[in-house]
């Protein structure tokens, strides 16, 4: 490979990005050195095994990735605003929709959700950490370096260009010559391993580490959705692991899984991809349902309506999500019998989802509703998500899908569920739990600005796309000719996208503004919350609970407040607390994964082997490690509790 | 911890006595659930592709019965000896435990040797991973299992060293128990490979 091929060249946009990247890196190094923060960074963050800090790091990455994916989206919208635009060429457009889709789902939605669950779940169940804190750190760093590997592709070697679905034969060696799709296969593999370990970790945590008295049917709804999500991860992600491994073999070692000669079968890829892919969209939507449930019940001041029906419908949705995957390719010749079966299973998902919608509505009924920013996102979710859901049922009718398939109708549909579902939930959760994470509240006025800009912009952007789809505009087309009548609606859509961009900027400003001027949360319970996370200080001391709380009913903290006026800790009840030690190994092992992955992408196998050897070394060192953590003595706990609660 | 809970813990087998161990063992069971999904996907892939032989040989033309039978015998026996190791561990007998683990290890290494021989043989006949979809899926499915067994061997060696260094403690006992779960799991997978790949291949 020549150096001129190693670095992507020839595009002014790319050169600008190169400069920006170099400047940012120099800036970061300078700031860290100037303020003597390297040690702090290493001790407090890079080696931490604290679920709250890991969660914060996930969310920071997710917001950065939302920026990256959002820039991709704006570039696409710029190109499509008018007919025959010359802003992006076909190849560049292909790369951009591929990275946009992949980043938004795997490196934005997933880490945002996983970040929130890291912060909240142990607190909600009254635990001091997750079951496997070391593994949790490894999960995060694998995600981080997987995402990094994927993101450098646009300046080094070239980005994948076969869509986020990477269908064969398009993604195979026959049609994709560069290293772009190697990045896809390897980077997703690395972060996928991290996700699988997160699934196992949280399943064990929720099953085994709940506070005494918290039976399964007394768990907060968010924890319930995470429990089921973990089960989905555990059964769906191995399918992705295999699919990506086979793709890697096809691309690097010329095997014949998905090729067009020697018996290869490209439809096998489509099937494997969506057997993972459909559960995956539920992996990002079920936790969203959980977040809305918490927010709605808190700000309606009522217990969640139909708790048991909620649990039942989550389980039902999770089960159905594994038997609907063919709806992604009704038009690819499976035949009427198969199509009908999958059509019915798909429509069946509307039933449990409808149950949930009504439960939220009944929770709101006669509640004393407080219109906070988090609540606004949750209220807006209901009608917007219903639009996405109803158009989903339209797509589920196999015969009709021949008309909608791969058109902008589909684009509108899945953005209505992904944005109005997952992204709204992430924003709701961010505003809701922000005081828990950082000890201050996100400014409500700015929050509402973000909400209205983003929510209105979202509808202006995507509602017209339903009609563009019906008018025949297909997805993934990089330009269109004049005279098709598509121009006005495309202009409208771009305006909407810009509004969303402005909303995002306001959010970022809000984060800065609130850090400086935001209202501190001294009580630990700024929203008059119902679940145990609000029984801790904001932000919680690193051991979370000085003594393990005892749960008497659903909405455990609410009950405590009603019965005993809060969660009281008697100093004589304190016992030394056992905590896990920090470790730098998850970090450097993930660097080794990155190095090995980079070697595979460029077929530099010597480099890949060096990386692999360091991974093995890490595993061996871990096996021999004899570190059982440490105990915090009672005096120390007393001191920390007083410091954390001095405002209360 | 309360006195009663403590007394209860004393009645458990050594590997279950600490909270951490119980979490680890449950976590490992769940990991094996994910492994089931992984191998199920590989089997599904194989079953979809195994008659798509292109211009290469079919399964019936290719497979070597003798090597496969020896491999099967070695691996099934190793699972039995692994069970004996746990039996000795429960009786608190370190020497028996280590001896049976070593036998298990050797049998596993024998299995890998024969598997590699079998693969080399196929490659010499011109049946490589690149020849046809059938062969790609065959090598990846059986090779993934073989890679798992190799990892298991390395892992068991590490644990034997730790047993020698640290003796039989709650922690080392848990490690032995978990690696034995892993080993039995690979045995089960092999039974499916034997039936769905080799037997099916030689019948159809
Ligand atoms: C923030 C505003 C967003 C805008 C303006 C936007 C816009 C777009 C556009 C224009 C396309 C390409 C249409 C085409 O040419 O086929 C697209 C594709 C896509 N978007 Fe978005 N999007 C946004 C957010 C999101 C989010 C939050 C997600 C996921 C969580 C997402 C997931 C996807 C996926 C999966 C694709 C398909 C990529 C492919 O065809 O391979 N988008 N989006
Ligand atoms: Cu689907």
Automatic annotation (TrEMBL), chain A:
Location(s), subcellular: Cell membrane
Annotated pathway: Energy metabolism; oxidative phosphorylation
GO cellular component: plasma membrane
UniProt xrefs under CDD domains: Ubiquinol_Oxidase_I
Annotated TM spans: 12-35, 56-76, 96-121, 133-156, 183-204, 224-249, 269-292, 304-330, 342-362, 374-396, 408-430, 451-471, 491-512, 587-620
Keywords (A to Z) from UniProt: Cell membrane, Copper, Electron transport, Heme, Hydrogen ion transport, Ion transport, Iron, Membrane, Metal-binding, Oxidoreductase, Respiratory chain, Translocase, Transmembrane, Transmembrane helix, Transport
Xref: InterPro entries: Cyt_c_oxase-like_su1_dom (IPR023616), Cyt_c_oxase-like_su1_sf (IPR036927), Cyt_C_Oxase_1 (IPR000883), Cyt_c_Oxase_su1_BS (IPR023615), Cyt_c_oxidase_su1_bac (IPR014241), QoxB (IPR014233)
Keyword Transmembrane: yes
Entry keyword annotation includes Nucleus: no
Membrane topology type: Multi-pass membrane protein
Annotated protein name in UniProt: Cytochrome c oxidase subunit 1
Species this protein is from: Geobacillus thermocatenulatus
Higher taxonomy: Bacteria, Bacillati, Bacillota, Bacilli, Bacillales
From TrEMBL, chain B:
Transmembrane segments: 26-48, 68-87, 94-114, 134-164, 176-200
Principal localisation: membrane
Highest taxon above the source species: Bacteria
SUPFAM superfamilies reported for this sequence: Cytochrome c oxidase subunit III-like (SSF81452)
GO biological process, one term: aerobic electron transport chain
Keyword Transport: no
Name listed for the protein in its UniProt record: Quinol oxidase subunit 3
Protein's organism: Geobacillus thermocatenulatus
